[in-house]
Every structure is written in C-alpha cells, then in structure tokens.
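Worked example

This section walks through a single chain of length 390. The input is the sequence exactly as stored; nothing has been trimmed or padded.
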Amino acid sequence: MSDLFAKINCTYCQEEINGLRVQCCVCIEFDICLQCFANGAEIGPHRNDHAYKFVDHGAVSIFGGRGNWTGREELQLLDAMELYGFENWDLVSRHIETRTPEEAKDEYISRYLEGNIGKATWAEVANRRPIITDQTPEDRGPLSPLITARLPPLDVTPEEARQLGYMMHRDDYDREFDMAAEQLVTSLQLNVHEDSNTEIALKLAQVDMYTRRLRERARRKRVVRDYQLVAKFFSGQRKEVKKPLTKEQRELRDRMRVFSQFLTAGEHDRLIASIERERELRFRISELLRYRSLGLTTQEEAIHYEQHATFQRQQQLRQNKAARVNRKTHVNRSHRLYQFAFHLGQQWLCSINSGKPIQKRVSRLVKMEIILFINSLLFHDTLNIATVSF
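Given that input, the structure is written out below as tokens.
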C-alpha cells in the first residue's frame, strides 16, 4: 500500500507518472511511462523486448459506477475509517483530500456495509461475535465505586452552602463526619522485621477500625446525598403540593420505613410502588374471580352488572331513608298526642277536684284518637278512660 502512494518517476524521461505505468519484469525497479514504452526506449541493461507488466498508480476506478472512485481514494477511505472511526466524516474527508464528507459517507455505506462486500463480511463477523463476560470481582472496599459513585449535586443556594461548609466545585465539605478517624493511623508505622506478631495484629486492627470509619463516613454522605436531606431541610417553604396519601398508603410507608436503610431513595420508592401495584392487581383479580363465579364472561356484562348493583344499592338507601322518615313522623305524632292527652287529663283532674266542667271543646275524631291512645299506652290497666266524657 505504501508503494501506491509513493511518487513514481519514469526511469527514462524522469517525469512523474500519475496514471498507468509499465514495469519491467527483468530489470529491478525499472518503471517507464506509456510514452517512453511506446517509443521503445532502452537505457542501461533494459531492452525493449524484456517481459513487462502494467501497474496502476491508483488512478483507475476499481468498482466503477457512480462516483468513479479511484483505487487510491478507496484505500485512503479505508485507512481513514481505521484511524478515525465511523461518523467522523469530516476527518475522513480531510484524509482523502479529494472527496466531501457526504461522498465519503455514501461510498463507505454503499460499498462496505450495504454492498456485496458488507454482506459477505459483516454477517459472518456477527455470527462469530464472542460473548464477553465481565470477570472483575466486585469491589466492596470503603472507597469502592458502589459507595463513592457521584450523586446529583446539592440543591442549595450559595448562602446555604456557606452555612454548611459545602464546597460546590469540589463537591465536598469542610468538616467531615468523625474528623478524629485519621488519628488512628497518623502515627502508625509497620515494621515487619522488628514488630512482633502481636504488635502487627494490633496495628492491623487499627487499620481495620480506620477502614470501618471511612466506610461509615462514605455511607452517611451517600445517604444525605441520595435522599437530598440537606435540600429538604432548607426548602421547607419550597415544598411542592402533592396529592395526600390515603390511610392504607401511610400505613404501608410506616411499615416499610425500616428497609430504607438498606436501599437508596429510588429503590425504596420503586419497592413501595411495586407493593401498591401488587395490591391493585390482587384486588382486580378477586373482582374478576367474583365476576366469573356470577357467570359473567365479558366486560360488557360486568359493566351492566355493576350498574344494576349500584342502582339496587341506591334504591335500598332511598327505602331506608323513607322508613326512617316515617318512623320519625309516627314518633312525633305519638308524642304530640301524648302531650295533648296529658294536658287534657290534668284539666279533667282539676275539674273533678273543683267541680267545674272542662271548658275546652274537642272534636269527635281527636277525642276518639286520644281515648284509644291513652287506653293502649298509658292507663289501660289502671283507669278506664273510655267512660270519660268531654
């Protein structure tokens, strides 16, 4: 490929050969142009009857058809794709020097992806693609990516950050949790040759204590950042109005709160949402089973059944309400009759004691109702009111 892009000069006339040239098969590195070959040029050991072959300098089109790309341009295209990769068509175009980015993209896709070359190569490569499995062991150290992964920045103002001692650009705090943790290892020195096994074990225990404190520090920082506790503390007045929770939802969140220390905020919310979704599905399944037990097989039948059941419940409620109203009316009427009979009885007793007749006249219908009511409820066993005359 390097010979393709090298400048070749005619051995006889010393002119640069840009297109097709003739190469002698007998002489070493002997190339002449077509004009000198046609004139039968001879120089040095070369004779015009030596065997020869035609060599293309990359100016002849390989595929033909649209674009008329030369072999030199095709090789430059493949070389640029190997250097810059797919989609970097501007760099590929500058590498080819004679084609625009659109032409380079169209030629590569049409020839080497969707053309015969692409169909003959990419399908086989896709079938032989290896299955790559990550064998890296999981890092559970105090500074592992699982603990120190970058979280969303704190939603605080510069004044609030100053109060917290929070440095926005460093994404860290001036004062960390358990600032005395480093004192465990500041003066620690390990000498394998001079220290005894007990001293080495004690020093390793100190390192383990320091590691545990680092892990706790990172865990607390992650919890604060993950649940946005600082932002919630400062944004008491900026709380969004959310839909109030039902009693069942509040009870579920209270029971599941103990698991929040093992999950992130997003995982905990997804867990609660999944449990609520499970409840909804269970309730819906029970409804469908009830419909099946009633002989309902289609959605239209279920809708008609629910409408009919709702109508019956409304009818029952209206009947119960009417019965309560009638009962109340009967009680009020009986109470009024009782009061009237009581006052009338008082007047009758007064008339007996004083010897004066009752002045108030009562209609015959009211008189009969009073007599029947008193006989049935009040004085049936002690006094025969039916003989009383008004």
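What to look for: The first strand starts at residue 8 and ends at 9.
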